[in-house]
Amino acid sequence: MRTGHPLRVFLVDDHRLFRAGVRAELGPEVEVVGEADEVAAAIELIGERLPDVVLVDVHMPDGGGRAVIDAVCRAHPDVRFLALSVSDAAEDVIGVIRAGARGYVTKTISGTELTRAIVRVADGDAVFSPRLAGFVLDAFAADPASAGGAPVTFDPELDQLTPREREVLRLIARGYAYKEVARELSISVKTVESHVSAVLRKLQLSSRHQLTRWATERRLL
Amino acid sequence: MRRGTTDPMVGGVAVGLSARFGIDVTVVRLLFAVLTIGDASGFALYVLAWLVIPRQGETASIARRALADRRAVALGLATATVLGCVLLALDALGLSFVANLVWPVSFGAAGLVVVWRAASDEEKAFLHQVIEEAPVPGLPDARTRRALVGRIVVGVILVAGGLGGLVATRHPTGATLEAVTSAAVVIAGFLVVFGPWWLALARDLAVERRERVRTEERADMAAAIHDSVLQTLALIQRSSADPREVTRLARAQERELRAWLFEARPPGSFDPSSVTTLAQGVAVIENEVEESHGVPVESVVVGDCALDDGLRALLAAGREAAVNAAAWSGASTVSVFAEVEPSRVSLFVRDRGKGFDPGAVSEDRRGISDSIRARMARHGGTADIRSDAGEGTEVELVMPRPESQ
Q1: What's the pTM value of the predicted model, to 2 decimals?
Q2: How many domains does one find in chain A?
Q3: CA spacing 20 to 30 A to B342: which of A40, A118, A200, B250?
């Protein structure tokens, strides 16, 4: 889907072995322009090299991926982030997305799929793994009006998923790729992508306090 | 003979003595009080008894434990010498009646320090409570330990000053003010000299305690990691020629570790028979299929609810579907998605394997007809199986939920 120069990717992960593994697995569409193993160095180098996409580990000392995203997003809004993690704690996942990452994938993802996800993020789309889709469905599940705890500033534009978005997320949670979702719902892949991006926007901007509370509570389950 | 734990006032010594000799506990307490007012020997005796008589339900006395802990002895001796110095100084200043308090009080206090160090955790908790609840008139709500120490220090100074004043007024000479001032100054001097040391000792104790807690935590963690992660890594090294086995081991270990880190379930404690909710049930399916077929299962659960017969049937059918996918489809992963809605629970099992034609499967293939369709139908649910050659298979199971929920 892309022509011309390969995508410039930056790796932030405190595990050298993992960085080496990712480097080796990424396809030719992608060129690694740098890597860092700690938050401060990452912020500095990303500012210098201005990559298209930063692959960032959720869990690192000194604030983790969130700290990197927070610092870089403000100065360079064009740099896009894809979060990588072995952790499935909802709190962490929702946390990096709300900080500004455009997607979340687990580290067990294959090289081909990772490359595809990077391209997608670089194009400004969102990358939802089945698990992230599940988290979002869960977080937006309870209808706040009927749950009794309706936030004072409830904004239906931001604090609720449309039935179509819900359908798309369900299919992703069931293991469907975007292309398969599109075929299943008889819509174009582009439309699927725009639905997912809309959900990502809601996830980032919604002031639903249930979102935070849900993520915290879920951890205790 | 044991110190009592039922309704003790401080250390349970009086309760223990009364139980042993059949004397009313109040009489024993009065005896200690009278002896203490006399020359403080009651106090020292009490502490001594506290040290050598084991607590109810414990085998070793505090003294025995303390002898194994050199630091406790050192701390006790330090306290005794400091107090001894203070009392001797007061004596030298002419407060002669203090002299016969020197030894009992010094040893009593030293004993108390040893008691605190070597007491069992339960006893410490009880003592803590006693100290915190001790009523101090005029100072409400001072419940922190630091406030307590401050209170005691100020109290001691005031009492000493008062005593000095009292004794001095008995002297015919007009040196009242002088005597009181000098007593106060001496006490203040001791505080200035020994205060920092006492503080350092106290801080040392706190640090040492934190350190001990940390060491214990580290030991627990090391044990857990050894039992799980290190064992698995060893197994993986030995079976490195078999990628499927390596995947299976790694996934099983990952699941266990995740349960430990995020759900606070100690490794190895998961018991499939104790499943009570849908999410746990799905975790069991994931676990079993990965264990027996070496195919990773990606499971996503939205919402959760308690299991009833219908949902158990749903899980059993889902398990069958997942096993089929892992065993026959040739897919590298199996996706399981469960969602709890107010009116129904649905479970999807999907693979991207070779697929089959559901219509072409002969009726004697009992797996699908019995284990999945019939099982769901018996409980009022439905099963829908979609498969295309080359496109993979998806099994959709839906179980309605009873009205009451």
Answers
A1: 0.60
A2: 2
A3: A200
